[in-house]
Each structure stands twice: as structure tokens, then as C-alpha cells.
Write a structure and sequence with these properties.
By secondary structure, the chain is an alpha+beta fold. Helices cover 36% and strands 20% of the residues. It folds into two domains: 190 residues, Penicillin-binding protein 2a (Domain 2); 356 residues, 3-Layer(aba) Sandwich (Beta-lactamase), CATH 3.40.710.10.
């Protein structure tokens, strides 16, 4: 009996163990089945995406921007490599620690990196987030040296702009910078990514869609340490299109040298096509600085400079045109039959209208003047009386035919309209009617009248070509990366001025006298071998009679202007110059215009052919000394200093 009980016990115990083991296995198997169902059926999409993210990395490759070239094919703006610091979200375990390490290692602004990280977190976890740009080569080397201790940290190369002529034509060409959050939310930038560079001003902004190109990238498979196993997919970047501009860099630099350290603007325009040959806003700035964070000291210097180097004066500077406006007043008077070339006025130095007295710039007066002499000597009294006889509305109507008081559509951001007043404008603006006393200042380009330098160049260009108002053009062609021309741009006529050729020629004769006749106010623009015609102008910044000390301060000095064209007999080019607070147009603006005309004329001359070496000596031998007549020194054989300067 005892043996039987022992036998039953020995058999039953293993059975219970087996039963428990089977139940345990079944439970574990059931849990595995449930887990597999959970992973592979219920949340399959979520974990498939996580799996892909764990093994995939996307490496964006930025497209190079198209180049900017002058009319002769000289590259003005190209590209150079720039290094950015990026973080890959899926590989960063501790963001705060990583940012601390990077800030200490590279000397970067941790707050700025944190802001960039927060802005870029919304994208796919395998897409790199740019946290710093414009790294130096030393910083790049430090990252590479510490790569094993910086998981998820990568260096990306992006092309940024390289300016071949440094600050030359900076306002025209513009600059690039990182795309902003506001821009990313707008239609033109929907396909852009945080950290991308876009045009912020000038040509760079206006032609962004042509210049930007299309970014590419590579999808990589990596192991747990971030090592590349294979390339899964690759899309090559598409280089942006390039632009052939209308400007001539040689003329551009000559115009900038003529300005020196003066503030103002100059525009050189082809009178038959509207092409802008030079576009100067002085002083200028360094556009390369805007691709990154501008040093604080340089930024403050730009902001505190009373000459406002960041302002595009050629396009958005508003100035009273002063006496340059008299060519419009004269043409309006001729066309409306108010005057002819024989009409005379006696200038005693002032003109009285009602209780108001308007002074001529020449206190003693000019005596008896006709149209030609009034333009030549810039007699204010002649044009005061002509303006009153015309009336402001007829004068304004002529201005509108020239495109004044409205944007010319040059195609750059920030173009100002200027201001041409009339009776309706004053009533709307001030709620007051136009008074007779408002007209004399307007007739000589003062009062409410305002123009931009680009409008001034267009105005004198229209006088030169006798009535065709052309849209100023900055781009000649769009070409692709292979040099194939994609687009060309023809001249665009905006208006036809309703004035007779005879009336235009009378005004042009007066402008010729300004520069070339004895007593003309524009004699400083005269060139011996090139017939220049034009008009000087001096526009008041403050009214006469104010405190003289205050009036003599720089910011209260008069603006100096000159607008002219050449050659007189067959006009080809127009030049407009505005020197801020330069004083007299004849002394400050006309010499600059003269230098620009000289540079233009020199560029038109064919290059001299090199002389072959004499047959009796080799090219390496020095040339023999010149044999001079008896009594003549080598210095005496040189041109006069005045001729050399000319």
C-alpha cells in the first residue's frame, strides 16, 4: 500500500509540472501572438515609419544659384561654398546636452541654435535641421575631430554668393539671406526649407525664381552608428538660371570712383533702349555680410552713418529736381504756345506775385533773357512767370506724359513713385485748394515736386530721343547652366510725349548751351571731343531765411543735380547725377557727370592694336630713349596737366 502511494506520487508530480509548463508556454505564446497582432496589424503603419526612420537618412544637396553677369559676360556674382551645422532629430538622444557641447566646442550662440532647432522640428525626423551657418574651416575641423562624440551632428555644404567686385553695384545686385518663417508661409517659398538662402533685395530678390534652381538630395541607409551602408535614391540639384544684365561693370566702377566719398546716386541709360548701363547709390555696403549674421559693430556703423549706405538712393531716394525740371517747364510752354524761342523776360533778381516775392538765384538778375539764355543761365524768374502762365494742371499733364509721379516699372523692390502735384492732389492731400503762389516754386522743381534719380535719367533720356518714354531695363537675357539663351527682353515703350520735334530741339539747344556756351552753369561737364548737353540743378533742403548756422550743417545743405545726354548731334546715352547736400549742381554734380561721360566715350573707342617690334631688334630689348628737339625736356613733351585729367 505504501509502495502504491509512493508510485502515484512519483507519477503525479511530473504530470503537474508538465501541465504547468504547458500552460506557461501557452500563455507566453499567447502574449507573443497578441504582441505581434499589436505590432503588425493594429499599429503597423506607425512602426513601419519608425523602422524606416531608424535606418534612413536624407542628405539634402543645395542647388547653386545662377550667376549675375554684366552685358559683356563678366561675372559679377558667382558662388562659393559655405558650411552649415545640422542636427538629425532621429539620432539625437539628448538635444540640450548636444547643444551645450556644440556651443562650448565651437564658440556658437547657444540661444540662437536653440531657436533654429525649435523652428525646424516639425519636419521628418530624418531631415537635418540647420542650427548654425557660415562655419569657419576651424569649426568644421573641430566637428570632424569630435564626430564620435557628436552623434547626429553633421556638416552640410551650401553655396553662397561671391561678389567679384566686392561692394560695386551692391544696391542693384542685392544680397541673399536665410529664408524667414514669414517667407516660408507665403506662396513663392512653399517648396523651400528652413536654412535655405533666398534673395532679400535688388536683382537677387526680384529674379529669385529664375536664380534659385531646384535642390537635390540623397536618401541613405545607415547603421546604428550612422555609417552609410548604401545610397537608396539620389536626385541631382538643378543649377539656377543666370542673368545677363544691362550694366557695364567698367562704366559702373568709373561712376562709383567719380562719386568718391560723396552721398547720392547716378544712373546711366541708353536713350534708345532704356537699358541701364550704370546704377550707382553712394555710399555702398558689403552684400556678402548679409548671408550670415552681420557683426554688431558693422551693423551699427551702417545704421548711424548720416549718408544712409543701406538706402537704394537711385530707386527710392526722393529729391526736388530743382532746375533740371526747367526742361519740362520749357517744353510744356512751347507745346501749349505760351512761349516760343523769341519770348523774352526781364530778370531783375526777383518776381512778385500778389504779396509774395520769389527770388532768382542771381541776386542782381540776368537782365533780358529768352528761352536759350534762360536755360543756359538757369534764370528762375523766366520759369516763375512761365509756370504761372501755364498753370499747375497743364504743367502736371506734361510731367505725367514723361512718366513722372509714377513708378517706371524697373522691376526692383522699393521703387518710389515720386510726386507731381496738381490742384486735385492738394485738395485731396491737405483739404485745401491750390493757390497761385504754389505754382512758381513748382515750375522750377521745388515746392511739392519730388523725383527719383531713375526718373531723372528717364526724363532727360526722353528729351534726348525726342519723346519716347522707355521702361528702364536691367536684364538683357536669361541663360541656363549650359549658356543657352532662354529669354531675351526687348525695349518697352511706356508713353509717347505729345510734343513736336521742333519744340524738343529748342529745349535741346538750350541744354547744349548750358554745358558749352560761355556763362553756362554746366561747364564742368564739358568735354573737348564729346558734345554734352544737360541741365544743372540745386534743390533746397531748408527754406532760406532759417538760422544760418543750422542751414550750413551738412544735412541742411542743398542737393546738387545734373541731367544730361551725349553726343548732342546723335544722342546715345543719358546721365543723371544727384549729390546729396552737395551744394551747387554746377560745382558738385556736373563734374561727376563729366567723368561718367568721359568713361563712356573711352569705352566706345576701339582698343589700340599692339605695335610689332622693330625688325632690327628683338622684342626683349629695351626701346631706345626718345630723341627730343634741342632745348626740349622730356617733361615738356608731355600733354598739359589739364588735358591729362580730361
Amino acid at each position: 500500500m505504501i509502495k502504491e502511494q509512493r508510485y502515484v506520487r512519483e507519477v503525479a508530480q511530473p504530470k503537474r509540472r508538465i501541465t504547468l509548463l504547458v500552460f506557461g508556454v501557452l500563455i507566453v505564446f499567447a502574449l507573443l501572438v497578441v504582441r505581434l497582432w499589436y505590432l503588425q496589424i493594429l499599429y503597423v503603419d506607425k512602426y513601419r515609419a519608425l523602422s524606416e526612420n531608424n535606418r534612413l537618412r536624407f542628405l539634402p544637396v543645395a542647388a547653386a544659384r545662377g550667376a549675375l553677369m554684366d552685358r559683356n559676360g563678366t561675372v559679377l556674382v558667382g558662388n562659393q561654398p559655405s558650411f552649415s551645422l545640422t542636427l538629425i532629430p532621429q539620432e539625437i538622444q539628448d538635444v540640450e546636452a548636444t547643444l551645450d557641447r556644440l556651443a562650448k566646442l565651437l564658440g556658437l550662440d547657444r540661444t540662437e541654435m536653440e531657436d533654429r532647432w525649435q523652428k525646424g522640428k516639425g519636419r521628418a525626423r530624418y531631415y537635418p535641421v540647420v542650427v548654425a551657418t557660415n562655419l569657419s574651416r576651424d569649426q568644421v575641423e573641430k566637428v570632424e575631430e569630435n564626430r564620435l562624440r557628436l552623434p547626429g551632428v553633421e556638416i552640410a555644404m551650401k553655396p553662397v554668393r561671391e561678389y567679384a567686385f566686392k561692394q560695386s553695384a551692391a544696391h542693384l545686385l542685392g544680397y541673399i539671406g536665410e529664408v524667414s518663417e514669414k517667407e516660408l508661409d507665403s506662396a513663392p517659398y512653399n517648396e523651400y526649407n528652413p536654412g535655405d538662402y533666398v534673395g532679400k533685395n535688388g536683382i537677387e530678390k526680384a529674379w529669385e525664381q529664375e536664380l534659385h534652381g531646384e535642390d537635390g538630395g540623397r536618401q541613405l541607409e545607415v547603421d546604428s552608428r550612422g555609417r552609410v551602408l548604401r545610397v537608396l535614391n539620389e536626385v541631382r540639384p538643378s543649377v539656377g538660371n543666370s542673368l545677363v544684365l544691362t550694366i557695364d561693370e567698367r562704366l559702373q566702377q568709373a561712376a562709383e570712383r567719380a562719386f568718391g566719398d560723396k552721398a547720392g546716386a547716378a544712373v546711366v541709360m541708353d536713350v534708345h533702349t532704356g537699358e541701364v548701363l550704370a546704377f550707382v547709390s553712394s555710399p555702398t555696403f558689403d552684400p556678402a555680410l548679409f548671408a550670415g549674421k552681420i557683426p554688431t559693430d558693422i551693423w551699427e556703423k551702417y545704421l548711424k552713418d548720416p549718408r544712409h549706405p543701406l538706402e537704394d538712393k537711385a530707386l527710392s531716394g526722393l529729391y526736388p529736381p530743382g532746375s533740371t525740371f526747367k526742361m519740362i517747364t520749357a517744353l510744356a510752354g512751347l507745346e501749349d504756345g505760351v512761349i516760343d524761342d523769341a519770348t523774352t523776360v526781364t530778370c531783375t533778381g526777383s518776381y512778385t506775385l500778389g504779396k509774395a516775392t520769389y527770388h532768382c538765384w542771381k541776386r542782381g538778375g540776368h537782365g533780358i533773357v529768352n528761352l536759350r539764355s534762360a536755360l543756359k543761365e538757369s534764370c528762375d524768374v523766366y520759369f516763375y512767370q512761365l509756370g504761372v502762365r501755364l498753370g499747375i494742371d497743364r504743367l502736371a499733364a506734361m510731367c505725367r506724359q514723361f512718366g513722372l509721379g509714377q513708378a517706371l516699372g524697373i522691376g526692383l523692390p522699393g521703387e518710389k513713385k515720386g510726386l507731381i502735384p496738381d490742384t486735385a492732389w492738394k485738395l485731396k492731400r491737405f483739404g485745401k485748394r491750390w493757390l497761385p503762389g504754389d505754382t512758381p516754386p513748382a515750375a522750377i522743381g521745388q515746392g511739392y515736386v519730388l523725383v527719383t534719380p531713375i526718373q531723372l535719367a528717364s526724363m532727360v533720356s526722353t528729351i534726348a530721343n525726342e519723346g519716347t518714354v522707355l521702361r528702364p531695363r536691367l536684364v538683357r537675357e536669361v541663360v541656363d547652366a549650359d549658356g543657352k539663351v532662354l529669354k531675351t527682353f526687348a525695349p518697352v515703350v511706356l508713353e509717347r510725349v505729345a510734343a513736336s520735334p521742333a519744340d524738343f530741339r529748342l529745349v535741346k539747344q538750350g541744354l547744349y548751351a548750358v554745358v558749352n556756351d560761355p556763362g553756362g552753369t554746366g561747364a564742368a561737364a564739358r568735354l573737348g571731343d564729346l558734345k554734352v548737353a544737360g541741365k544743372t540743378g540745386t534743390s533746397q533742403v531748408v527754406k532760406l531765411g532759417e538760422d544760418r548756422k543750422r542751414h550750413l550743417a551738412y544735412q541742411y545743405q542743398d542737393h546738387a543735380l545734373f541731367a544730361g545726354f551725349a553726343p548732342y548731334d546723335n544722342p546715345e546715352v543719358a546721365v543723371a547725377v544727384v549729390v546729396e547736400h552737395g551744394g551747387s549742381g554746377g560745382h558738385a554734380a556736373a563734374p561727376i557727370a563729366g567723368q561718367i561721360f568721359r568713361a563712356w566715350a573711352d569705352l566706345k573707342k576701339p582698343a589700340p592694336r599692339p605695335l610689332p617690334p622693330p625688325a632690327d631688334r628683338t622684342p626683349a630689348e629695351p626701346a631706345p630713349a626718345a630723341i627730343l628737339p634741342p632745348g626740349q625736356t622730356e617733361q615738356a613733351g608731355q600733354p598739359a596737366a589739364e588735358e591729362q585729367n580730361r
